[in-house]
Task: structure prediction
Amino acid sequence: MTTISDDELITAAAAVLHPHRVGDRLFGDVGSALVTEAGSVFTGVCIDTGSGTGFCAEHAAIAAMVTAREYRIARIVAVWRNDNGALHVLPPCGRCREFIRQIDPANIRTGVILGRNRTTELADLLPAHTWPDPLD
Result:
């Protein structure tokens, strides 16, 4: 059972924000934290590349989780800090939503933190996630 609060996950995601510019690319400006069904916490940052080979912060956090041989995500959050220092919670992009789902079928019930006191299940953000029935 997970015992970490949403605010603690937001804080964990914010703690890994260390933006670093390389040319016109920015690395580490979005951070993610997740807690697994077993209660482990994993974090990651985004890597923005010009060739399209980069990845979102959620991908990095999930990769760390899979490296530890865990697959079920209880809750996940991503954050970004603007130029004035204000922290924002970001919803996962479509690619991340599908990535979360494909790691384990039970992740369709993952709690996605969308703000303080605002969490929804991945299923609500990815409503048409099952393979369709044939037309005939």
